[in-house]
Amino acid sequence: MGYNAAPLERLVEQFSKFPGIGRKGATRMAYQVLSMPAAEAAELAKAIEEAHTKLHRCKICQDYTENDLCKVCSSPKRDHSVICVVESPRDVTAFERTREYNGLYHVLHGLISPMDGIGADQLCVKELLARLHDGEVKEVIMATNPTVEGEATAMYLAKLIKPLGIKTTRLAYGLPVGSSLEYADETTLYKALSGRGEL
């Protein structure tokens, strides 16, 4: 317990759980919340609570949605023959910003990482495979981050998908190795998408 009053200290502790937020940043955020008018602070608390209670995973792609199906999966305008496989819902947002991709998505909610004890069974792999048996899907794009874990996950999935006779491609390396899709600009993402190659 620091010098702060207990409720403030608890708030700092909660903020410091966010990735990339140290104690200094967490303390700044806590004081920012304290300086808000009561109604604004209540709105923030309500937004956090509603995000947790109203959002759940889409029955098809596993992205977050308020309904049974997300907007992408339920849209008749999307190309249902292509699925872009990503690590997290944040990556879907990144691709949608490009306005260049018109297919569907599949969110794995993580990557295979033996060092962290994460295997394929802890990811949404079976949900992906279940989507590939009706003959509608012609291509699966592996859009996992260009990291060791991202590569391992893409190769593992490609081995499972190829025997089904479905084209399996990987994003081209317009993306710097070790970077995160979330922070890539639209042009880089578009180039990586358009220059993808078969695995």
TrEMBL record:
It comes from the Bacteria. A zinc finger (C4-type) spans 58-73. InterPro entries: DNA_Rcmb_RecR (IPR000093), Rcmb_RecR (IPR023627), Rcmb_RecR_Znf (IPR015967), TOPRIM_dom (IPR006171), TOPRIM_RecR (IPR034137). Keywords: DNA damage, DNA recombination, DNA repair, Metal-binding, Zinc, Zinc-finger. CDD domains: TOPRIM_recR. Residues 81-176 form the Toprim domain. Pfam families: RecR_C, RecR_HhH, Toprim_4. Transmembrane segments: none annotated. May play a role in DNA repair. It seems to be involved in an RecBC-independent recombinational process of DNA repair. It may act with RecF and RecO. HAMAP family: RecR. Belongs to the RecR family. This is Recombination protein RecR. The gene is recR.
